[in-house]
Structures
1.
Amino acid sequence: MATASTKQRDRKSVGATMADGRPFLAPDAPENRDEATVSETAWLWGSVLILLAAALLRVVALELKPLHHDEGVNAFFLTDLLTKGEYRYNPENYHGPTLYYFALPLAQWFGMTTTVIRLVPVIFGVATVWLVLCLRRYLGTTGTLAAAALVAVSPGAVYYSRYFIHESLFVFFTLGVIVAALRYYDTARPRYLMLAAVSAGLLFATKETAFISAGVILLAALLAEGFARRATRDADFNAAVQRTRSTKSSARAKARTGSGANKLARFGDSSRIALLSANAVAVFIIVNVVFYSSFFSNSQGVTDALGTFKLWAKRTSLEHAKPIWTYIEWLAQEEAAILLLATTGAAYAVLRPSRRRFPLFACAWAFGLLAAYSLIGYKTPWLALNFIVPLALASGYAVGVVDTWAERVKETRWPAALLMGVALALGLYQSVQLNFYHYDDERYPYVYVHTRREVLQLVSEIDRLAASAGTGKQTTIAVASSDYWPLPWYLSEYTRVAYHGRVAAYTDQIVIGRDGVDEAILQASLGSGYVRVGETYPLRPGVNLVLYVRRELAAK
């Protein structure tokens, strides 16, 4: 993470210029004055504290929350990869392969536990905060610290960084593409272009929704370019009206126009640009082929990856359909500070367009993604993580504008400090409540058909009964309920478990069924040889499990 001052970097960078010859981060932009008033020590300590807070919120008590259904299925694929050395991509099987391959080394070194598998999204979640800090050049010191802090404590960003699903990796790779591309634009160094290509490859190897992010990012970049060009033309026109139309002024204008026309020259001639572009495309393809083919052991996986979009396009119209305003409601309930600040930042960027592209781009990216996912009928709360991060960038921009205005006009910085204090306090409170107390409470929108904590009590009761029987992990267990994930994860050490998914004639020591009509049928099938132990054990909303054991075992 770079810590050198922006002014120093501007002088050293060969490519930090816009089409009109001005620096990409225009030094005359009022939003940048904080660079002269925020010390490097304050920047460094602020960054460290934000990263530390992000890590603590994500790593503490990782086993507290029981695995979600999807986590259990992902853990099943990882178990096969670990024990059998096999993973075969299938478009029906919950997104791309990167999650499993990044989790594999940790599972090999430390074993398959809830904490270990969840460390993967934790690492990428904290790394996303680090990537935000890498945007200091484009958001300014105050804005970047504000954006990173908001991502660090965001209830949704924390909640889904503690989930063994793909979203945390997906968001990291998305931001990675942007950060690397910006560095390439500024420095013209090929290594950053290759990093952008690798990030893009990993992005598409993580989830099929990469096409949505790619499309929105492209449109946001075009929109930001258009606004910045208009702002530049307006500024030049106003300056020209006030200047004397001298020959010297005309020469300066022509020089600026010339530099705009030759702005791509610093990347090399056309043949060099073509070669670098071809290399970047090759890297992108190779990364995807390597992962989807399971490191060249399953060529069918590459073919299936190309056909997955048709399958998921069909799913988006059939599953998890919700009204268009759903994400706005969820954000208003859980991310109110980020949503309000981002809206303010976007309004300022549109009403007061400047020659700085990145703030405009961040706002367009954030609200473009929000609009795109809102228009799609398929809605799940973990998808909100895709626009929480860019919304935080837009929020940071808003805080930076407030800070600059107060410092220039009032010669004080307390308005921005107060604003961030309130936003962070609210975000931290909601994050702690959600992640450590109400992690399975359906009244919270991010808790989506989540496994209830009582399932862990069911597992503890099975362990107790197995110990009483003296059969330990050899205890025979029949699961008659058709809904049982993530029980295969928690019962993975039991070697004689059968997941029937229906009521049948059982002779196993322990039988797990579902209450209601299914239980009445199960009782009739089991007869007097079994007795029910305990009350019901909620699995998820609408699904309650019951536990039956053989009568002689219950007596023990």
2.
Amino acid sequence: MTTIRRLSLATAAAMYVLIVIGGVVRVTGSGLGCPDWPMCHGQVIPPFEREVLIEYTHRLAASVVGLLVLATLVVAWLRYRQQRSILWPATAASVLLVFQVILGGITVLQELPPEIVTAHLATALATIAMVTLVVVSSFTGGRQEGARSRAGRAFMRFTLFTAAATYVVMLSGSLVVGEGASLACQGWPLCNGSIIPSGDAAVHIHFTHRALVALVGLAVLGVFVMAWRDFRGNPPIVKAASAALLLYAVQVVVGAGNIWSDLSQVVAAAHLAVGTAVWLAMVVLAVLAYQLPLGEPEAEEPEAPAGESRRGLRDTIRAYVALSKPRIIFLLLVTTVPAMVLAQEGMPSPWLILATLIGGTLAAGGAHAVNCYVDRDIDRVMSRTQRRPLPRHEVPPERALIFGLTLGWIGFLELAALVNVLSAMLALSALVFYVLVYSLWLKRTTPQNIVIGGAAGAIPPLVGWAAVTNSVGLPALILFAIIFMWTPPHFWALALRFQEDYRRAGVPMLPVVKGADETRREILVYTALLVGVTLLLFAVSGAGYVYLLSALLLGGLFLARAYRLWRDPERQSAMKLFHFSITYLALLFAAMVAD
């Protein structure tokens, strides 16, 4: 299949260049550089003027693409007539190209009506998608035989939906440009200083585009999590999902750059170029998800017992609440309010505290629900986690993922609307770090997982501080450091108690990799460092003697228990330290408020 592979790759590359040139035509205002069609100023060789040459280059590139699409069709019919995954997309690309040429002519003759320009882009994106399907099929051989696991079916459906949504986002962006609404929303990520702005039609068009970008970004993140979690052994799937997520993040930054640069032509052209790359990555991923089996029958998760499949509304709600891990959320919120009090140097507004806690709860609950999705295989084999909703089949895995991502996004919106954008961005960063860095990467690869991953749990004090001051000061960073240093001795004590669980699950927690003796020594070291960091707050933040005495007393008790654990190998000592560490943190932050 070397011929069709090379030809379709060349065609896809040429079409991508054509779309990018089309973007250049649009942002430079060269759409009517050639005011007639198919000639240019009635000539085959047009005048040598900037706008004319830009538009003429676009037409020449379209001619080259037309020849390549036609060549792909001919080769497909002559040599691959029996392979539908190549023949039909090649045929569809040729038909779409005819419509594309007609729309191009109408666009010029009617002097760039926004709806025709958007239809022109829509056809171009559909055409390059068909060519991309030919490319992928030339490598995979088309739809492959084999059973698809439940995870494979869910991934295919979610990926196809996300690809379709990406297409809609691209067209909404074209409409924004066509209606002259590119700068209708000043500022980013807020629109004219508001999360839900009011204004004329241009503002609503621009804001709708931003809302769609946000929602589709959530879906792209979900696709990446599903690909990395369930199909890590399938490099094409993982690479395509990673490319889509990375390119989408770049696209968001470039989109913000449009506002920051007051619609620079270079940035505006790059926006379409990167957006088209995101579209291609999603098309590749969708085709792979459809064509590959993605799981054998034995990879299926065990079916839920018949009695557990019929659940009432109350049980369902309880299961979804359990996904958010409310006990852990409470501990996180315990560190948020004292940070707000310290930042205010008094008691902040009750409404501000409530809004911050609600947004923080939603963001943290979303992160935990996604973590439950990622860790469901581990949770099934660990006695400590077997009663969580996913191992008990109380919630389908894909719904848990969607639930978690949605909770996180609602938390971001709530904080941005009722508190400030900085606190919202910090909460969102905690979710992304916890899911992408800790859950998907560190937890299964290094015994330092909880050390580095602890940064996610240390962000709530930053959220609280930012909620009051709209900034992150040195005292807030010390609060972050306190949680960061507290996390290893807290969690390693639990890991000592359940090290056999972690060994059975294949999770490289420190007791499994380095042994219990080394873990107890590390607990003592980190506890000593923790006590030292807590004293820094007295030195730099103006905290008084109530806090200082409390930090010394609580730190001394923590050190004494860590020392006792180091000397005493009994696992009960580890659990006593684990429970005390929770009390320690709550009392330490309460002392900040009391001080």
3.
Amino acid sequence: MNADGGAPPPAIALDTTRVLVIAGDEGATPGLRRLMEESLMRWRDVAIVEERELADGSRAASGDAPGGADASRVARAAGAGRWLLVEPTRRGDSLSVRGVLVDASSDSTLATAAVRVAPTLAGAEEALAALADSLLFPAGVPRSRHEERPGTRSRPARQAYAAAHRAIEAWDLARADSQLVLATGHDPQYAQAFLWLAQVRSWEARRTPRATLGWRVAAEQAARAGERLAERERLRAAALLALADDDAARACPLFERLTNSDRDDFTAWFALSDCLLKDDVVVADAGSPTGWRFRSSYEAGLRAFERAFALQPMVHRPFGGDSFEHVQRVFMTSGNSIRSGRAMPPDTASFLAYPSSQGDSLRFLPVPSARFADPRTPARTEAVNASLLRQRERLHRLAAAWRAAYPSSPDALEGVAIALDLLGNAAALDSLRVARRMAVDADDALRLASLEVWLRVKQATPSGAGSLREARRLADSVLRGHEPADRREARTLAALAALLGRANAAAALTEIAEASDVPPALAHAAPALLAYAALGGPADSLRRYEAEMDRAIRSTLSAAEGRTIRADWLARAAFLAAPEHRFAAIPASGAGSLRGDLLSAWSAGDLPRARRALATIRGARERAGVRAFGVTTDGLYQEAAMLAVLGDDDRALAWLSPTLDSLRFVSPRVLAEVAYAGSLARAMVLRADLERRAGNAAAARAWSAAVAELWAEPDAWLQPVVERMRSAAR
């Protein structure tokens, strides 16, 4: 019932695109209402309620115009879903015009805004148009987008465009993409929408290569409508087209001009960073110690990223659920970070470079790939090692800024934990535990729990029995409580299963994670073989899946496809399984690389050649100055184990110990893969045996106890190893 006791009026379908305009004190400002109506009618999807349509239209145009519930009643009677009150107020020598847009169905205010105009309304059209836009699109486009004109007369196109920019502000690129597609659907001539669709897709293309085609098409659409774009927008369109043409030399300076004209536009800084960091072209330079240099400055790209991050800390988000891992890679925080490069076509030369420090900057000195491991190539200097610590400190500052900007974000706290961990700071675990308590998303909970497992293992190995026990219990709980929702989760769980000595579970999870990367006929055997090889057995499973792979390759693949699969999957598994297990046939394509030559010699039983191959690997590593924590376990174990089999326990221990002793500095992402996790556990067993044979009783007990703790409930075939470890730990 209504307030007067009568029955409520029948429901009327109101058109929210129809607007009733009411002007307060119209007599003092004649023509104001009509000017406001004309401003609204600029949008082709907005209809104005004409006075002749109103039963009491004379009141709507007069100084005693209806307001509140009366205005809503009048609007509803005309089928209008909105009404707009325009109130003029004299302010000195100008007139303040305030607009209030109201939902006629609920009497609720949707938006308010005000502008200043001349008392005579002379030249007021532009200001009133801006007032209309502010009311129709209250959550408009950020000022930093530098629009001179809306670019469309379609209201739904403009609404979708504004929603896209709100998504960009939140750094939700997937949502921005969909809204921009919607905007261009409503108005196929909307140049600004195509421009920002190109920009968003250029960022998405880093992790979704399929976005590249849509990026070029959108950039071309925007560029063709250049006369409808502001100068700053034309600059961005030209830069995006150049980038789509792989012409970073032209694109990056254009993005830099955008940053120079607006130092606070984070999208311009991120676009510049993206351009500089993607540019991998190497050019000849007589002034360089190697005779070559990268065309673009990586340091400048990092500084542009830092500026974008300072303005909007969520700029790391386009890179997926493990987005902060991408930031780690960009900042070269791994002990084995290398930058690759290429010559300009038609030259096909490729290059590699270690990061190094030059003053307070990061630099790279490219060397042709063929000479990278050559003994005549200059050794990796201390400047390279110094850069690693500097970059990790830099990452920590970035993470701390993110945490300060988003104190209630578990993701930000996770970033701090990762950065502290890379610096070997035990406080990382405290930060991570707080982040786990804050997490509400199941995906976040799994990732953070897994990360805590690896942090505990890194910090507690070998002597922290209590923390290793907590790591095992947490890993076991995660494995029992999670069904993988996607490949990434399966990969995370497979690594935990390998750490706990559960090869069968690791194989099943690796199949989920990796099956789509191989031909369908190999979707079961290839991933399973990789997981079993990582743990070195059981032997019957290795033989079965090797034979199954071989049959599938011979019967379903072409010769070229077969060679690729054998090199990428079979040779990899064969090396992981060594030295305990020798495959029946090793792909010849594995030869030529240092580890390929070692595997070939070992599989052939050519022990003198295997010794020489091991010496070559060691020499290359020493020349490169690779830090111990930069050596990954999926090779380190196999190399050390071969030395032990060859009777060189002392060298095997010296080979293995530095990396295991510096686990706390290893990036957790380097361990959280099934190949690394399985090899780490085997390396710990080997370390315990080597320490015992060397007469180092205390160390032997510590490493044996660590293995016994992590492998408390392994697959049955590992039980004899566990019993031996338990006995040695007493």
